[in-house]
Design a protein that fits this description.
The structure is a single chain. This protein has 282 residues and is an alpha+beta fold. The chain has two domains: 6-97, Arc Repressor Mutant, subunit A (Orthogonal Bundle), CATH 1.10.10; 101-263, 3-Layer(aba) Sandwich (Chorismate lyase), CATH 3.40.1410. It has eight helices and 13 strands. The strands form four sheets. Strands 7-8-9-12-11-10 form a six-stranded antiparallel beta sheet, with helices on both faces. A three-stranded antiparallel beta sheet has the order 1-2-3, with no helix packed on it. The protein is elongated, with a radius of gyration of 25 Å. The relative contact order is 0.14.
């Protein structure tokens, strides 16, 4: 018959500071100092620094067994790694080695998700979740310079960095620009390329706003995030370079543990011409 395990805190000559001592009928486990989880986190951080992004991290049970501590200390160590952005937890999938990249928004860089992620040394990937025709909402009408209620494509896509889900995007594109957008996006990942080839336009960034906030419930579910986790919100609009027509607008929710958004401001007189590339998540 198994005897109950009792845990208590004590001070002793053989234990430094506060310690948790676990006892049972047959054995006594070595004391675990209140900062032991930080030592475990430091050790794991050193090991994981050489692992590829997306590598699965050992479970809390495995970490507890390896370091001879309880589940609570192992969990605290993983939470500390998450706080340092060394690892990332994905609901329903596990904990993975994290690599945070810089997503730079500036006049000297193309306003394209694919181009920016690639320039940071990571591998981007896009997945279309849905393309629907629906009336343009009033809160998007001014941004697109079109009357509310006009028929638009609403595109929902998710984006990956090094095969880790990172970004959830809602995009609005005029139906008359690319009538068969649904078929096109299932054949080609890049919205920028679709707009150029089928819409015969040259998209450039027209407007952008960046903030940090807790996403709405549907985005949290889509990104498999905890309810209290903040994320970057990048709102943007693109125009056609030759005639200034607004081509699209987008709201991009990006995991803050995967991306650091950097906005560079400079005198346009001193900057080179902006490359003609697509929208914020194209």
């Amino acid at each position: 018959m198994k005897q109950p395990i009792r845990m208590f805190t004590c001070r002793d000559r053989g234990v430094t500071g506060d310690a948790v001592v676990r006892t049972s009928g047959r054995r006594i486990v070595n004391g675990v100092s209140s900062t032991r989880y930080l030592e475990i986190a430091d050790s794991l951080a050193d090991e994981l620094s050489g692992r590829a992004a997306g590598t699965r991290v050992a479970s809390e049970n495995d970490i507890a067994d390896r370091f001879g501590v309880g589940r609570a200390a192992a969990r605290a160590a993983v939470q500390e790694l998450e706080r340092r952005l060394v690892v990332r937890r994905v609901q329903g999938a596990g904990t993975f080695v994290n690599r945070r990249i810089d997503y730079v928004i500036s006049r000297s860089r193309p306003p394209s998700w694919t181009a920016t992620v690639t320039a940071a040394g990571a591998v981007p990937r896009a997945l279309v979740k849905g393309v629907d025709r629906m009336p343009l909402p009033a809160d998007r009408a001014d941004r697109l310079e079109r009357p509310a209620g006009v028929e638009m494509h609403r595109v929902v896509r998710e984006f990956y960095i090094d095969d880790l889900l990172t970004c959830w995007v809602h995009e609005w594109i005029p139906v008359d620009l690319v009538p068969d957008l649904d078929l096109a996006l299932h054949a080609v990942d890049s919205l920028d390329l679709v707009l150029r080839q089928m819409g015969r336009v040259r998209p450039v960034r027209a407007w952008c706003r960046v903030s940090l906030d807790v996403p709405p419930a549907d985005v949290l579910r889509g990104l498999r995030m905890e309810t209290s986790q903040p994320a970057w919100l990048v709102e943007s609009a693109s125009r056609d370079a030759p005639d200034g027509q607004v081509l699209m607008c987008s709201d991009s929710w990006i995991r803050a543990d995967a991306v650091r958004v950097i906005v560079e401001l400079a005198d346009t007189v001193l900057m080179p011409p902006t490359p003609d590339t697509g929208g914020e998540c194209g």
